[in-house]
Specification:
Layout: E1 7-9, H1 20-29, H2 42-47, H3 58-65, E2 70-72, H4 80-83, H5 94-101, H6 104-113, H7 119-123, H8 133-157, H9 166-170, H10 182-190, H11 204-207, H12 211-214, H13 218-225, H14 228-252, H15 258-266
Antiparallel strand pairs: 1-2
């Protein structure tokens, strides 16, 4: 039966879903976490290996992800690549439209339309808060996994020996937080709130000197500054900056390693 909005409504034939139920079951049953890289595609992460064609027709998409209970008329049955440009032009039924827009599978098309194909591009994508929480959570989790593994690798590479530098000792072999990128911190700790593409190279130590310079939206900045993650990181960065000043003074004294530091103490 053709609905006056151009949508052909069919009887409900099961529980509608976007494929996430099956993905959840696989996640529970599986024991090994996927190994993502910055070159992993957002589609691979969100669809867990399944792929979606840009040439897929809207009715095929509805059949696959809405459970076959709805289809549009032939004059509205466009490719998903066309549909994502102006969804409400092809589906006027607001309830159905909202269901489509909230599907994780649809988020892939939306991200592709925004030019986000890989995790590296998601890293500095400014529209994170326009993506549904489930999809955003999956992508942020994958990115956070990579960033944490990188920090762990860097920390393991730092070894203490008799020739350890004063810098190693002062910073206790840890990865320097003030050299973390602002956008990475916002993604890992604050869900991507405040990420701006032009800040992709900004380090935390620069950000904390003048936060308003890098996040112009006062409301967003206020929300970020009120979080516990912001306050704890601010303290950590300031501590490291103080230690850097100590390091600079020691270097001015010609002290670069542990033996040199011991000699300075005996003087």
């Amino acid at each position: 039966m053709l609905h006056r909005t151009g949508v052909v409504m069919a009887p409900r034939g099961g529980i509608p879903g976007d494929g996430s139920d099956a993905a959840t079951r696989r996640g529970v049953e599986g024991t090994q976490q996927p190994k993502w890289t910055m070159s992993s595609s957002v589609e691979e992460i969100l669809q867990e290996g399944n792929t979606s064609s840009t040439d897929m027709m809207l009715n095929d998409f509805l059949r696959n992800y809405v459970g076959g209970r709805a289809a549009v008329g032939e004059d509205h049955n466009v490719t998903m690549q066309v549909f994502v440009q102006e969804p409400d032009a092809y589906v006027q039924d607001q309830q159905l439209l909202e269901e489509i827009l909230n599907l994780t599978a649809y988020q892939v098309y939306k991200l592709h339309h925004e030019g986000v194909f890989f995790l590296e591009q998601w890293r500095d994508y400014e529209g994170k808060d326009t993506i549904t929480p489930i999809a955003r959570g999956k992508l942020n989790a994958a990115l956070t996994q990579i960033l944490k593994e990188e920090r762990q690798r860097r920390a393991q590479e730092m070894k203490f020996t008799i020739s350890s530098t004063i810098e190693d000792v002062l910073f206790k072999g840890r990865v320097r937080v003030n050299e973390m990128r602002l956008n990475d911190f916002l993604t890992m700790e604050l869900g991507g709130r405040g990420v701006v593409a032009t800040n992709r190279g900004v380090l935390l130590k620069e950000f904390f000197k003048d936060p308003n310079k890098y996040i112009r939206d006062k409301g967003v900045l206020k929300e970020i500054q009120a979080s516990g993650h912001y306050l704890s990181m601010q303290r950590a960065v300031r501590e490291e900056m103080d230690m850097e000043e100590v390091l600079r003074k020691l270097c001015d004294e010609g002290v670069n390693n542990l033996p040199g530091g011991q000699k300075l103490l005996r003087r």
